[in-house]
Amino acid sequence: MRIVVLGAGVVGVATAWFLNRDGHEVVVLDRQPGPGLETSFANGGQISANHTTPWAGPATPWTALKWLGRADSPLRIRPGLDPALWAWLARFLANCTAARMRRNTERALRLALLSRDTLRQVRAETGIHYDELTLGILHVFRDCAEFDRAVPQAELMDRAGCRRRVLDPDACVALEPALAAARPDLVGGIVSPDDESGDAHAFTAQMAALAAAAGVEFRYGTEVRALAARGDRVTGVETGGGTVSGDLYVLALGSYSPLLVRPLGLRLPITPAKGYSVTLPVADPARTPRVSLIDDEHKLVYSRLGDRLRVAGMAELAGYDTRLDPARARVVRDQALGLFPGCADPEAAESWCGLRPKTPDSVPILGRCRVGNLLLNTGHGTLGWTMACGSARVMADLVAGRTPAISLDGLGLDRF
Ligand SMILES: Cc1cc2nc3c(=O)[nH]c(=O)nc-3n(C[C@H](O)[C@H](O)[C@H](O)COP(=O)(O)OP(=O)(O)OC[C@H]3O[C@@H](n4cnc5c(N)ncnc54)[C@H](O)[C@@H]3O)c2cc1C
């Protein structure tokens, strides 16, 4: 079968790789000059399968109110007059109940665990390296109330088979000695030893190279302008370089996915949530963490990528504004250097921002839709790197008519 994959981010490239392995003829279209150059470029680097707690939960509206107005707030909302964003926010609020949060966590976790296993298989099969570390993820807390809220949830996850251990501050420092300077402020931590970290862009670039060598055609610098359709089938992709046709199409355009399918009558509730990252060349390895971390207080994640430290966070709901605000990037950098003083030269920091494709329930949109030959693989939000390989495997199973390794209940567009 000839399959056109729209988008060469981590999700599209992994999908192309799995489809090629099944013997399909695959063409990948992307407007950028190479793979993984938009949201998959400089993310937080975490393969955080054990951290699939959705943004929407009972405490979220109150936490958001507390943050709004603070200059260093991890969250900013500027809906303006955008009706799509207002509709998204209403759906988000509807997901802020304990029952929905449990349901959404289970759905995301199902996919994330499959994905982590699949990533390991890909690594074993291809031998690729992308500054990966398999040291787990340590979530550290400086606020007693937050820690007390997180512990029962961690114990619940542990009983459900997602290994988690609750640590006191000394045990946190024993696990990650670079936390020594922060020891007086720590109230505890929760470690998920099976989680991982690594450079999503390096992974995407290498997988694209392997896929190209295996016969996948990548057309970079190709803007997708529209999908041509007749009845309930896509007949071709209109690009700056002419029409590209296939038997089947996979939508993996990240935050831009809803724009392309709206003319077909498909409404994908995905909104861009801008995040920031700062990458610091390590100056003092002893003061720089190797274990990937989540700093609960500032909602920042840390990943050691070889001789670099990546720090990422912030969420801005303000439409498709891709401009980098240097003040926001400085907040991320300074909070990192506050936690790990002397680990890097602040002047050498490289700042970046990208748009997370967020659904209101923090679960991606996978599978078939009412356009017969269009498969959806989008809306991965904060966890697209974590979920890319599993989502790709699901796509390949659907195309081949195999039963996917996980139930797709609650992962499709029909849930909205
Ligand atoms: C600050 C930050 C930190 C993050 N940290 C983590 C983390 O630690 N762990 C994790 O799992 N996830 C993390 N994420 C989320 C993760 O990066 C995303 O979910 C993931 O990159 C989405 O991948 P994608 O392939 O769907 O989208 P993208 O990488 O955006 O790929 C979509 C592709 O479509 C192309 N495209 C779009 N429109 C068009 C068009 N009209 N024509 C042609 N091409 C087009 C783009 O060029 C792009 O290459 C983070 C995100 C951010 C912003």
Number of domains: 2
The helix-and-strand class reads alpha/beta
The coarse overall form would be globular
Give the ordered list of helices and strands. Answer: EHEEHEHHEHEHEEHEEEEEHEEEEHEEEH
Explain what you see.
The strands form 4 sheets. Strands 4, 5, 6, 7, 14, 15, 16, 17 and 18 form a 9-stranded mixed β-sheet that branches. The two termini are 30 Å apart. α4 crosses α10. The chain has 2 domains: 2-40 and 202-268 and 362-415, FAD/NAD(P)-binding domain (3-Layer(bba) Sandwich), CATH 3.50.50; 50-95 and 132-197 and 271-358, D-Amino Acid Oxidase, subunit A, domain 2 (D-Amino Acid Oxidase, Chain A, domain 2), CATH 3.30.9.10. The chain is built from 10 helices and 20 strands. It has helices at 10-21, 60-67, 83-94, 98-126, 144-159, 169-175, 200-213, 257-261, 326-339, 384-400; strands spanning 2-6, 25-29, 46-47, 75-77, 137-141, 165-167, 188-192, 196-197, 217-219, 224-230, 233-239, 242-244, 248-251, 271-281, 292-295, 300-305, 308-317, 350-358, 365-368, 374-378. The longest helix has 29 residues, at 98-126. Bound molecules: flavin-adenine dinucleotide. Residues 7-12, 29-32, 37-40, 43-46, 48, 223-224, 252-254, 256, 275-277, 301, 312, 354, 356-357, 378, 380-386 line the site of flavin-adenine dinucleotide.
Give the helix/strand layout.
Blueprint: E1 2-6, H1 10-21, E2 25-29, E3 46-47, H2 60-67, E4 75-77, H3 83-94, H4 98-126, E5 137-141, H5 144-159, E6 165-167, H6 169-175, E7 188-192, E8 196-197, H7 200-213, E9 217-219, E10 224-230, E11 233-239, E12 242-244, E13 248-251, H8 257-261, E14 271-281, E15 292-295, E16 300-305, E17 308-317, H9 326-339, E18 350-358, E19 365-368, E20 374-378, H10 384-400
Parallel strand pairs: 1-2, 1-13, 2-9, 4-17, 5-15, 13-20
Antiparallel strand pairs: 3-8, 5-7, 6-7, 10-11, 11-12, 14-17, 14-18, 15-16, 16-17, 19-20
Helix pairs in contact: 1-7, 1-10, 4-10
